[in-house]
Amino acid sequence: MSHPTNSQVAEQIAELGEQKSFSELGQLLLSIEEGLVYSLVESDLDEESFTGDTPGAGFSTATVYMFKGASSLIESGHTADGKKILGTIASACISQICEEVPKENKESGKRWTTVCNHLLEVLPQFGASTIIDIAFRILAELKTSGSTPSVLHGFLPILLDALGAIGTVEIVNGSTNGGSVGVHDSDDEDASGETGGGNTNITRTGGELLAYWVNSACSYRWDPHASVAVCALLREISLAENMVPRVGRRMLDQLKHVELTELPAMIYQLLLFVRYGAKRDVLSGIFSFFDSIESPQAPAETDVEAHKRWRELGDIEGTIMLNFSYSVKQDFELGEALIAYVRERTDGTCGGTVSTFSFACLLALARIHRFEDDVTKLLRTTIMKGIHDSMSLEATVWAQPYLPPPTHSAQQLLSAVVSRAAYGWDQVTQTLVQLSLNIIDSSVGLQRRNVFSAGACAEARRICANALRSAFSAHEFVRAEVLEQILNRVMFLAEGHTHFIELLRDLVADDPDLVRPYASKLVDMFDSISALTPTSVEQLLRAAAPLFLEDASLRASLTLVLRKILFAHSFDDRRTALSGLSVLANRLSAALDAFQQQIQSRPDSVNGRTTRRIDELLSALLELIGLLRRCLTQQPEVRVMAYEKIAQLLDTRHICRNNVILDALYEIFRIEFSKYYCSDRNFDSPINVLMCVNPSTHKVVMPIASFLQCFAKLTLARSSFAETRSGSLGFLDAWTDICERFSKVNIEDFELDPTGDYTLSNPIGLRNYNTALLVIGCLDTSLEYALLYGVRSLNSGSTSGARCALDNPALAIEIFSKFNRFSDILYNRCVKDDKKRVIGSITDLTTMSLPALVQILRQILPEYNGRNIGNVDSRMALWSANNKLIWHLLDATLSRIQRRRLIGFSAGVQGSLPPVPDVSTVLEVGYIVYAGALVYYASARPDEEVELPLYLRSKGNRGRSVLQLCSDILGACITDLATRGIVDLLSATLMRPSPALFTATSAPEDACADMALLVGRLRNSVTVLLAQPSAPMKDVVSILATIQLLTTRLAEIATGNTVDSHREEAVECLKQCAEWTVTLVDKELRGDVGYMKAVITLLTECQPFTQYVSVRQRAWSMPPPAVGPSSDGREMAPINHVVVGASLAARILYKEGDETADEIEEQEPDLEIYNQRTVPKIVVAATLWLRAELQQINWTVGQLKRCVQVEISKQDVSEAEDLERSICAERRICLRLMALSHIMMRLLKTRWQKMTNDAVVRTFQEVHKTFGLLTRTKTACKDLPITESYIDVLSLICSELNTHVYNMLIEKYGNNSSVGRADDAKDGETGKTTSKGKGKGKGKETLTAGVKNKSQQIMKDSTLVSSLIFQIETTEKHVGNLGKKFNTSLAHYLKRSTARDFRIRESDIPAPPKFGHSRSSYEDSSIGETNGDPVDEEDEQVAEDVELNDYESPETQVMDLVDLDARMDEDEQNEDEDEDEDDESERQSSKRARRY
Q: What is the model's pTM?
């Protein structure tokens, strides 16, 4: 029988396929062999067999008909035959697709798409064998080519889902044919459980087959170009939970093989894939991959290829961030997973930190409103904590070699985002701006609440400000937002608004042209400028000065606003307007002076534009002067402010050189001066002071002192111009007359009595006070004028013996003596109702400005050249020899640097704060006091006599010497410049002065060496002073305080992000300072409280740097250094020496122990320096030092867990090694804690006074906190064993120290404590005396107050004791948990004593209460019975989380309430015995009141 050919069969199929019913076609397919069907499909799908102009127009006709015929067989009931034929057709289609699609062209794409669509239509009719054969045929193609046909991407996921849904099947091994697997489906009608030919049957489920398929696909190599398609395929499969991690890891591994351009699509597929789970693992893999391929810094532009790849990577990462944001919007759990992942890493549990790319992804996540607050808080905490930990690591010198270095820098994170904003990261730049502003704003509050250190907050502000400045300079799209946010925070007076003003100043200074297009925002802000404080207005206008100097419209808008609020009803608004006007006038005058100086130096540069510019500035300045003139007609409070602002303007050089402005001001003051000046010498006073006080209200109506100060400065300024000198000679003579006559006045000339009433509570006292205040102001102004006149005459080269009486230097001394006498009267006589002085210091009465004081001190404090005393002019010698005058001028200078508030011009008017001094003025003040006083001792030798000027030989007024004042001024200058961040500039100016340094705004690079040299010279001055027979200890203490300020800055350099050479110089200086301080403790310790505290403070600042290890020597790859138990002992030896001395002295002072004083003095030769006054201060200082050291240990313990995780991450997984570095770190912590505990033992063994003992108890509580934290950390880190060092610390603290503290608690805080008895006796004596001396009623009040005070003291003691016991029990609980973890009993190291529970002695139990008495004693007894009850587990957990401090602690069950009640009853009984005159009823009522 002949078989039909393919063409014949194809014709029959085509003929039958045209019929409406496909039943005949199905019968035809049943009659055809399986191989022929397969061949028909292959030939039908062969591209060469198709014809037609349109591709795909006539092909696949037979295949489509065969699909329909097979489907009709299934529908007609021939399910097995239909599925078999359908499987043969589908297998042929899949085989043809796998062979042809890789070679397909664009024109044949529709053909294969049509085939796949038909496959999708008949897929539900496939049998199990067909599904398995097709799936594994495609898997074989993936194994061979590394990819799957693209046309199957929509079909394959559905096929694999069907594969996983099939039931149990039997797979026949060995019957594969053409890549298919022989299968007996249990659901088929002809399924059989037997096979022949020696084949074995394997039973599998569809899920197992799908898992095998997926695992096989993950184990094959993928074509890099097809990776996205394969990932998309695997993502669309319904995977079991156990398969998700395997697929996720394979997709992450493929990231290494794809090109950069394919990364966004790959990452997007991964982000879609995580809906099945494994979010943390996938996120970790993504961020780890980008950490490995990105460079921390941008490559140099000269490296073209590297820079091009870096830019391309930035664009790709930007696209990925967009995909990430879109994915999070579809799945919020992904965003929460990212936050949890970053929080876990930043908490140190994984030994890592946030990377640059993960930081950028978080910024992108913050753009979604749902996550904005959480992400901002997380990033803010991460940055602040990173900075804090980095600085703490540098400060904790002893732990540096054992802890891992920080792996990222906050500055690098922010700068990376800014630098890549132009290359794809622009979407996160705005979020970065908001984050930086938020950190600057919140850092002030974090610093105030002691969440982070002040240094960390300042560094965070600096880093964020630099990031904002870089973003503002580089990217135009953020400029408007940056300025708007800054101005909003300034306007609403945010907590850190001053820092935002500084940021605005830096932005304007960097490039004013970038800010000028947004000047309209400044104009809008000016409308609400009245809401700001005067200081904020001054700072704001100084920051924006370059803008309104160039922009006339902006200047006009600001002037209009100031004009409006200048006449506002509110006094504060007018004060704000005056501040703004003074700043504007100052800046305009400076700009005008710069133009004039340019014209004088380069006349040929003058052109029409320059002339117009000068005229414009001059016109604006005269307008401002006119506004100031209108202020002089308002209330006295406004006028005095106007006079102060004008006086500040006259202190500037550019105003004094402007003849036009001086003439304008002269016309304002000339007429007013004539009203109050009395030229008739028949009157003793040259100024009619009585006209300035209202005779009815006794209030000041004319602030004559402020007026005269302005007019004096104006007269001196105009006298320097030749063309105006003749016109002002009359006023020069008038001022001469004023000074001469004021030098001879008496207080009676002003109707005042030296012994009269100057209190403010009655009209006469008010009148006397205001009059005296005005007279003192006039004397102060006259003194300032006389001194400035002499200084300027000396500078101008005029000879002595001139026509003016002011040329006589004795005149200024006479005026000063009058000022002193009048000030002393007012200082002593003006008191409040509670007998407290109204005036804090005589210096508060002077109104001399800091520039004037600088001019005077520059002449009368001669500069020492190292060999001879500085030369002083003969006219200045008299002033230099007057110690009181020098002291007054120096004290006034100190108050101006510290900005102490002045006395108001009238009673009830608050004085103003001095203006913020310029940097150049502060530098000059520091140089004057150093070169004029301190250098005499700094350059001397201890074994030679120092030649000193007169003002340094005698002791100053009120116990303060000139040297001490000079040292205090230098310290104030250091503090002021430290707040500006340029304290290094002062040391460079002092060591190598030059005009350029006095006008500089930043320190030179080698300023650290100058600071080290300055510290060395100040140390030498202390050594010289101590070598004197009677060393001036106050001077020494002041210089030590100045040294401590400098060492604080050196410590910041040593622990900050600075150049290595500067860090080494700072560390070397600190080491030398520590060695020198140790010699002070060992050899030069004196019995002065201030000196001892200063030495201890300086020692604690410098001593840790003796163990400093350079950055190169503490690399993580190097083995940790070995440290012995004696290393910390050597470092703490000076402190231990002081504590031992104080302890031995206490045994004599408080009569503790059996040794005699002579025996104790043999142990401590320097025992005479310890006395009743110094011992408590020394012990308190030692406890403060112990607390500071314990805080460092607490931080180090917190880093121990991170150290463990980092070391584990760097180990080989296959090798189980010991954590050598982590164990060494823990041992180092234990050794440090052991050394501190030994000092603590010395403190606990000694019985101190009550307040001192409280400080010791609180410190011991901190010791237990630290040890409890260490124990809890060891419990959490399962890889840290129990070491011998830990056992030693455990035994010392929980056994020996606890024993001492229990005994001390019974002795000092128990019922029979000597402290309680002494307090009782003292209070009893006080009550008795009071009762007898002041009557019965007053005595009752005193006794009631005494009982109340003792009750408060008892409650305070009980709180202190209960907090300590609670902390001890908490530590013991952690020790027990640690022992359970390692199955080791540690209980025998814990000292448990009945003394801790305050066991009730039978002898101390009071008698039972009588019938009819209160039941409080029974209630108290019932409360006491609960002391032994166990504490609930929930209460223990809550108590563990409570942060204990000195005054707030949870109530615990260990308080001995019965003991406290008995003690209170005993106090009441003693007091009742002293009240013999009271009757029985009064005694009972008072007793009930006191009991309550």
A: 0.80
